[in-house]
Amino acid sequence: MVELVGADTLGGFIAEAGERFGSLPALAIKPGFRTRLVSYRQLHETALRVGRLLQERGIRQGDRVLLWAPNSPEWVAVYFGCHLAGITLVPLDVRSNLDFAAGVVAATQPKLAIVSRFTPGAGEGIQVPTLAIEALEGLLPEKDELLERVEIVPDDLCEIMFTSGTTGRPKGVMLSHRNVISNVRGARAKVPPSPHIRLLSLLPLSHMLEQTCGLLTPLSGGARVVYPTSRQPAMLFRAIAEHQISMLVVVPQAMQLLLNGIEREARRQGKAASLQRLFDLAQHAPFPLRRILFRSVHAKLGGHLDTIISGGAHLDPELIRRWELMGVAVLQGYGATETAPIITADSVGHHKPDGVGQPIPGVDVRIAPDGEVLAHGPNVFQGYWQEPAATAAVLQDGWYHTGDVGELDADGYLHLKGRKKDLIVLSDGMNVYPEDLERELIRELGVADAVVVGLERDGAPVRVHAVLLMREPESAEAAVRGANARLASYQQITGWTVWPHEDFPRTHTLKVKKTEVVDFLRDRDRGTPTPVAAPAPAAAGEGSLQHLIAELASMPAGEVRADQTLGNDLNLDSLTRVELLSTIESELGVYVDEAQVSPATTVAELERLVEAGRQAGRQEAPFVSWPLGLPAAIGRELFIQGLVFPLYHAFWRVRVVGQERLADLNEPVMIASNHNFGAGTIGLEPAAIGMALPRRLRLRVCMAGEEHAVFDPRFKGFMARLCNVFPLSKEGNVRGSLEYIGRLLDLGWSIVIFPEGKLTAGGPMQPFMGGTGLMAVEGHTPVVPVKITVERDSALQGHWWPPRGAFTVELGEPIRFEPGTTYAEATQRIEAAVRALG
Fold first, then answer.
1. Cα distance between residue 705 and residue 703, in whole Å
2. What are phi and psi of 272, to 5 degrees?
């Protein structure tokens, strides 16, 4: 295990990590079809440049910067950049509304707000200068412009965390470098990180659970943190498998959603009974054998997921049991934002399903006479921002009063009973903990979730009242009756209400806002029910499918009709349809396969596909990996060197120009070539390019081939695979082709494409297809222009004398595209570069 964190500040932390782990990947994200990796050294260097950028904008040590954007490597760079410059960070969940953000701005007076295109209103209206995080890379100063030196000590304020709590108005939690770093050290002692860990970051980085457990602790041990671009369950399964994720940090509801996805897929395949038999069998099997029993499930999850860390809310022991029966260890912890956030946590190999772990090293826990959990240690916060009275109410003699009720067992494990403020005290003095009742209610068939509160009306004794989120409202009474049968006499639920909306009002960590539930009940009893938690309707179709289509078709949303076709009526070409389906996935959370969409698809048909996609998981075309292995490589090399190249030299004199231009390339490239051989020699260009490439590049190159022309029938497809040709769809599953290309590039293979899309048979070069620029820009890889010029036909074209023809393959200078380059501009530059050769 790598030694514990030695740095005392977060700026020192990232400097230490950059030096220790260097070129190891620290962060990964796949915003398009290509995975982008950021090494530890790159992260440190970018953070230094961010710090310098902020200093150049007049932001000084102690000033505040608002960070209001989704998780991404850029978010992390800004986070560390602020800490390196001594700037106090004020992170906000990207889903926070404008009113909440305006209140935070008024309280903290930040000098700058770093926002995203996903930020509500792009951050407009908060009366603070803004900077778009998507434009950050293009604004950063050069690497040699050093950060102005600042003196930072461990007790300096590093961030102010405003959280939308379950009760009361949000308060700004002031955390120092010491608070955060000490908590990372404690977390490492419980779950040691290592470079072998790959963690999928699901919770917002604007919450301390994700910052400490999902970012800082993994980075302290050289692990890789992956940021998904969609939280749709089907997409999460894909991300877990594709990135070979081994660890998740989640809230309990996310664990349930993933389990629901596994069970839903089993039902779809007609294997629900088989899955249940495996659960029954696994109860009697040792832990390692359980992974073998559930090998098909683990295969869907990439085969590496072995640990889930849960926090932020109560975790049902039954949910723990289900995951552990599948061979996935579930660890949980307990804490609060005010403790940065961990107070107690399970250790690897040591946990109790009904407890929340033992205190982490350096933290002391004791139980007050009234049962409240108190915590003391270097992780306890400095106080609430500009609220001394609120600070004094919870911070006494260095002990943080959590507001939770619990007990410590003989082994030092903490067991929680509920929130002190939620405790229902009956008229006979008996204490009822709502969590116990909610747990029993959720066990009932048809109950999606439940909230139990104590209601007082007209001076009458307090009554235990349940509010139920029901799939079938008519079964509510039976559910309450079933739960009461398992509860003690003093715990009996005496009244119930079916919640009228799709979900309870929740915080961004998915806790139910009980105060809003109680307010609803009270307003209803007064005859003025408050419609809380109802989803706000989209304004003028905003967020609807018609609105998304209208944006891409540059027309008013009201003019989009159900009977219009995407091609002839709305003029969406193949590239724009890919963009539309990507937008549907990011905005509506639904995946639609391009193979199902054509120019003749109507808006109504697309709506049906979107609706079907809400229920179905994503079906991926299989990635064929055997041509990339050593046996295929040996067979391919023997075939090429023993047969293909000798035949070429028998009929052609080959001249190669510009090979030295590739001498410094040490990364995968995209090779874009014209498609120009004489009649009768169709399909020989790939071999011609192979002859021109340096051997080190040729051995790691894949050629694009038209999906049906090259791969049908089966034997022809096998030979194409053996020659490392991959399928490229021109009109059908375009996006699947892009995903395939991205996977090859991520694995370190270069690709060859023919952007004209068709053979010109000796004629003039055709315009390049628009997808060329998309692949170049989104692929984040150099593009090598190549031009094949036939000087003299060979016998293969019917000219028997002279028998040997001649052609030249010229390799151009690699082209790199800056972020923000449009696809059209990239396509034009590549085409111009190819035309200029020869």
1. 6
2. -60, -40
